[in-house]
Amino acid sequence: MSFIKKFIEQEKISRRNLLLASAYGISGAAAMRMFGPSPVQAATYADPTIAWSYRNRTNPYWNEIVSGGEAFVESLGKPKDSLTHLINEGSSEKSLADVKALLAKTNGELALAIDTNDAPNCRPVVEACAGAGAYVSTLWNKTDDLHPWDFGDNYVSHMTWSDEKPAEQTARILLEAIGGKGGVVHLGGIASNNPAIERLQGLKNALKDYPDVELLDAQPADWDTQKANQIMSSFITRYGDEITGVHCANDTIGYGVLEALRAEGMSVPIVTYDGNPQAVELVAKGDILATVFTNPHWGGGVTAALAYHAATGAFKPSEEPNEHREFYGPTIMITPEDAVEFKAAYLDNVPTYDWKDFWGPSNGQILYK
Amino acid sequence: MYELRQVDKHFPGVHALKAVDFKVNRHEIVGLVGENGAGKSTLMKVIYGAYQPDGGDVLIDGTVVRFQNPRMAMDHGIGMVFQEQSLILNLTVMENIFLGYEQQFVKLGVIDWKAMSEAARRQLAKVKLDIDPAMTTSDLSFAQRQLVELAKVLTLEERIDGDLVILLDEPTSVLAQEEVELLFSLVRDLTKRASFIFVSHRMEEVLELSDRIYVMKDGAVVDVVAHDGADKDAIQHKMVGRDVDKEYYREQKQKPYDEDKVLVRFDGVSSGNRYTDISFALHPGEVLCLVGTEGSGREAILRTIFGLETPTKGQVTIKGETISRFTAQNGVKLGVGYTPRERKIEGIVAGMNVYENMTLSQMGNYASAGVLKVNEEKSLARTWIERLGIKTPDVYKDCGGLSGGNQQKVVLAKWRSAGADIMLLDHPTRGLDIGAKEDVYEMIREMCAAGVGVVLVADTLEEAIGLSHTIIVLKDGAFQKRFDGKPGSKPSLYDLVHHMI
Amino acid sequence: MTDITAQSAPGARFLTRERIIKWTPLLVLVFLVLLFPFFEWLEDFGAGKEHMYLADSRFFSIRNAARIFIAATPALMVAIGVTFIIIMGSIDLSMEGTVSVCAVIFAFAFIGWGGTLASWAWLAIPVALLVGAALGFINGLVHVRLKIPSFMASLAMGFVGTGLALLLTGGDRIRVEDELFRSLLTVRWFNFPIMVYVAAVMLLIAWFIQSRTTLGRNFYAVGGGEELAHASGLNVNRVRIMGFTLAGVFFAVGALLAVGRIGIAETATGNNFMFVSITSVVVGGTALWGGIGGVWNTLVGVLIVNVINNGMVVIGLPNFLQDGVLGILVILAVVLSTDRKSVSFVK
After folding, report:
1. How close does chain B come to C342, measured CA to CA in Å?
2. How close is the nearest chain C Cα to the Cα of B311, in Å?
3. pTM of this prediction?
4. Beta B106-107 vs B470-475: how paired, if at all?
């Protein structure tokens, strides 16, 4: 009993201090912005709290991202669970609220890696962090008018992937495999998701060079295996043998498509995206023609690393060029020829990354259309 | 000023109001008395607009009006103080008083609570109740709630220019003696402003308060007596006066019961404030009738025997076994059957068919290892359909679609086929037409002949007298008198009414 | 004279309200099955192609029927489970969590004990059923003993289940590759894969429980009149707990068929089952306040939902219309099956 009581008391006191501190921090930051970008070095911390804020771990993709974050924390000689997890369950409100709570708790001594769930939520999160003197690196979601260099050192970096080009590459592999003629169907992600749109666009770009191939149909399968399974079997009903190739927006969809084909005893070439271990195995077996590996493990690790090293003062973000502040993550094409090799290199043993090589595998500065 | 002329009201199978003439003058208190089922409630519902009459006219100051709903009646100055209090307990007193009329306090879309509170205080002053209008209603005593109810109706005073008619339905049933007197002096006071219609089971109160008294029986007004000419005995005779048809109640089939054996024995049993210190014994072949007004404790006693209610004092013995755990499961096991008044709620499961309903309380007898023997169920159902003459196309008919009489027969068959030999019948003939009633009477006699003990709460006093071997009269939860009802020496209606109210 | 029971009119008419309500879901299903081929015909007619209505329909074919059944079987099992609960007048929203847990535990046990049905790994099947029963039992216990409304208790249990599945898998998928187990999907008798026959057998078992056992009868009694069931000496609490346990078993069967269909067990295996199963039960004509309906209604409901899902894609309608159409169907189903005069309060 007394232990709990003591804990609550302590929390109360530290909370009060933190509130005062963060109030001061916000006004300080506001003053700073009033006078334009400040030449003054933002405060750095010897041992900032490291946190990852993301949707949840049910999704294997996010699982990989977070495991990268954990690997980074371990590389610092800390235990795995010293990484703080903020789970937003797909709610932007919760995402922001959790960040604010953590800022208050850590007094701004925070290195935060975050996917803000949707693009508009990125600005309030970044402003809250900058206001409290914390360091933040973002992944995936950000509006085009928001840039790290507008926030001095506190908004360290943003990383995203452009899926259009890699999706176009997989589409070309598929279209070559079917001899440049016939019909393809596309099963996409949640209709309003940016990656889903880009991956379909990649297919359309490739199709321009293959006039004899018809895009028979494209339906959103919501990144869901079972839904993809049902939609694929409906496609089989509608188009039957007209389908000579399937372009899937990710691996999860691909599994559902493969099972739908299997139930019919059909065999049609398919390509997927994401490079999940099971998909890579299927590529090696030849069941999938190609998938794209985006190395979420590295992405998750390096995002946390950037925020951490900026927070400790190991490097000064504002002195880095823009292509080191906003950049594309890596993409690796996996085809049956290199699947086994890839598997050995990336999946069977998780490579030990040099988490200080922030930009080595990256893919150039983000371009806005 | 308020008048009903030749008002008729029919319900399927029942002629509830028969050419009723009724009149309320200014500053007058009119009493309305009658047995259960005489048509008082229906008449009141017509007056305050809940029912529309099938025939006849409603007049206010000589003009014919027609109310589609109680709200319209209220707009003509007719308000109702409900017996089952109509206050919403989790709202405050003032919210209750102005429920549905909050608009007057709304300023810029927001309720001005202060103004409402002031207005509520004025209303409460009319009934001389000094409480904070912002109190939650559930914190008030019953008597206070009754007064709030009255205050709520009196808001009509401000809204209506014309005369007010206020109905008081059993307003005293939950009040103590001094509270009743307070209420009466208040009502007398308020006659300056309003007329009252006062409905009560308590004859003395009606006599004391009313200027004129309407006596109803079988849906018709049988007499109107002025306050001065009113005589309790005479009124009671008029309320019940009817020749009892011996044939109708199968009196010739009434056989003496077996006095040596006792099925149910109550020894000084009390249950909270519902009934106190009740003792009786039920024998095989006996019809024991509990007589009293609504709320006199009749139903609670039935529920205690069945096991739905646990007594607070005294000893209940069923077939020689002293009951310590009062559960329905136990009651069923001891062979008690219960046909509740609300057939739709506790009698039959609508949506289940005839045989499913019949075996509901005895499924164990028609199943082995959890698997039902549907064929045996069906043949049981067919036997009883024939035996009781249940009118149903087949055993698959949804019981919800049967007529009331046939539903009642299904319920009886359910218990009888399960071998119940203590039957508790709560208003078994309520809502049934004459033919169906006679069928039920026939069944009661048959049960007695088979050695079943019956505890009956009858729909009318005639029914109670006609059917029973023994009558126990209750009043406000207390035992009044026991009558023996051997054929030929049955008590008169007047004897009973005398002790009831 | 406070209450006068209305006498029902002698029901001699052929098209009574009850009859219409009873057969409406089936009519809707037949209508849909004939509607989609019509759109196909319209499309080909517009393109000037030869097309005989129904005969040339791709939708109205045995192979497509098999596809619809394959898609429907896991949902049918889950919906049957929840049907029992809804007949009791309660609701069970734990299906997504329960399905995930059962699928994941099944897959772990299956792989761990040999990875093929020909070994001791077959024991994973009864284990999964037991897990489903246990989760349902806890669900019922929480609902009855702690007196928490069933929707809340079961929703919470569902979250617990999803969390448990996530804990077990750490977010990974488990592939079940055994050819023998996957023959559920790959081996066909008379054009239909084995899983369809498994589902048919389970449906018959559910029907038997519903119509021929005391338990099934008790579900109806509790749903039709809890007071009365109590007053007839039934142990209502026990019936409820058994109902939730039974539902858990059917959820587990649903999980097994879902794994059989996709070959993958993961936390996401349970996704969408809540929406699909509740929609199916309601569309099939089982009343949400209990006492009315049954497993055949649920079969029709599940088929309606899956025929729409399949048909919409087959005729090339955009995906977002499916959810809209399903939503409208749910409202229609409730409107048709409710005598709204008798329901005074809608909460």
Report:
1. 12
2. 17
3. 0.76
4. unpaired
